[in-house]
Design a protein that fits this description.
Blueprint: H1 2-16, E1 21-31, E2 40-44, E3 49-51, H2 59-72, E4 76-81, E5 98-106, H3 115-122, E6 129-135, E7 144-149, E8 153-156, H4 163-176, E9 180-186, E10 189-198, E11 203-207, H5 213-222, E12 226-231, E13 247-250, H6 253-256, E14 266-270, H7 275-285, E15 292-295, H8 299-308, H9 314-319, E16 320-321, H10 333-349
Parallel strand pairs: 11-12, 11-14, 12-13, 14-15, 15-16
Antiparallel strand pairs: 1-2, 1-5, 2-3, 4-5, 6-7, 6-10, 7-8, 9-10
């Protein structure tokens, strides 16, 4: 989601500067590649790039293809095939041994359904959504970003002949929460669709505004997470100390939940260094559906809190991550922040947090089907 946010900001800036732009989207990958379907990059006519569609090897050639799309004012699908060991002939030196299909869409500001307008609508409200991109591997016709679905179609330029079929497939993706690929027939031509499930960014609720919370908040911001800092001390919970926090709340424990929206992407980190504050808030949090609760400090602290709350059950001991974080030998506040963020990320993606060199399956958590 951070990539989309950065692209929208870059688009707004470039629009004011009267630059012409194109959006590049990785829509399909066969084999190995650095980025997966859904990776995006905004390209301006003067060569500014926001986002990424590879590890850097495709960007130079992508600029040329984007300029062509801008000049011709039409969508273009470009395929980079590096399954041949002699990938130097492509001029991009991918070295990934895969086939990457990238769609280039010129941004026409007057078009209310241009890709950036659709991406902007995607961020209008904190909720999951489905984005449909139509393309063809066999025909020159590339329909491009075609629909945004949030419980119902928000934007749509899907051909009427396949509209109902697409909606049915979108609903399945919404239910399964896994992106997928589908094929349809339009005017006797096969049209492929990348039906992409997009979650809102992780909402990180940092309870505690001490010095050790500052690097955690800043690193989470760099990841594109929404950061809320909560503390009972107005001297600590300030915009000066947490310049990039989305919200800063000065609150007593009993008033916190009334001010917070909890969804499937919400993580709480209790790190006030005030035992009684953490204890009282933990009591309220255990009555919620918060998917992640973590407490700073040793295991015995968590066990003591659960015991005092008369909530020392195996389920609660498993549910609360205490001590919080992955075992990376962290010592400093910055290292501890990395440990905490890595654990939260692994929990939300369902990843094992193992060494990648020991992983037998593909690196990426899911492969669109």
């Amino acid at each position: 989601m951070k990539e989309i946010t950065d692209i929208i900001k870059a688009y707004q800036k470039a629009t004011k500067e009267r630059k012409k732009m194109a959006l590049a989207t990785v829509i399909k990958v066969e084999g190995s590649s650095y980025r997966r379907p859904g990776a995006r990059m905004l390209i301006t006519d003067d060569g500014q790039l926001t986002g990424a569609i590879s590890g850097g090897c495709l960007e130079g050639d992508a600029l040329r293809k984007a300029l062509s799309a801008i000049v011709q004012q039409e969508n273009k699908l470009i395929t980079y095939d590096t399954t041949d060991e002699d990938d130097a002939k492509f001029g991009v030196q991918l070295g990934c041994n895969g086939i990457v299909h990238i769609l280039f869409e010129p941004i026409i500001e007057a078009d209310e359904l241009n890709p950036i307008a659709i991406l902007t609508a995607l961020q209008s409200k904190r909720e999951s959504a489905v984005l449909v991109t139509l393309f063809s591997l066999t025909d020159k016709q590339q329909l491009g970003t075609g629909m945004l679905f949030k419980n119902k179609p928000v934007f749509s330029k899907i051909p009427k002949s396949i509209h109902d079929e697409v909606i049915s497939d979108i609903q399945k993706v919404s239910e399964n929460k896994i992106s997928t690929f589908k094929s349809y027939e339009v005017n006797s031509q096969q049209i492929d669709a990348f039906i992409e499930f997009i979650r809102p960014p992780i909402s990180l609720i940092i309870v505690g505004a001490g010095n050790d919370a500052q690097p955690l908040a800043e690193m989470a911001y760099l990841l594109g997470w929404e950061v809320t800092v909560i503390d009972g001390r107005p001297t600590h919970a300030t915009p000066l100390r947490f310049a990039n926090a989305t919200r800063i709340l000065i609150s007593k424990p009993e008033s916190v939940l009334a001010q917070i929206q909890i969804d499937e992407q919400t993580a709480f980190v209790l790190m006030t260094h005030n035992y009684n504050y953490d204890l009282e808030l933990l009591k309220y949090l255990l009555d919620t559906n918060a998917p992640y609760i973590g407490t700073l400090g040793p295991k015995k602290k968590l066990l003591r809190m659960l015991d005092e709350l008369d909530l020392a059950t195996p389920a609660n001991e498993t549910r609360v991550h205490g001590p919080i974080g992955l075992d990376i030998g962290a010592e400093t506040a910055e290292e501890i922040a990395i440990s905490i963020l890595a654990e939260i990320k692994s929990v939300f993606t369902g990843a094992s947090a193992m060494f990648l060199k020991e992983k037998k399956k593909p690196i990426h958590v899911y492969e669109p089907k």
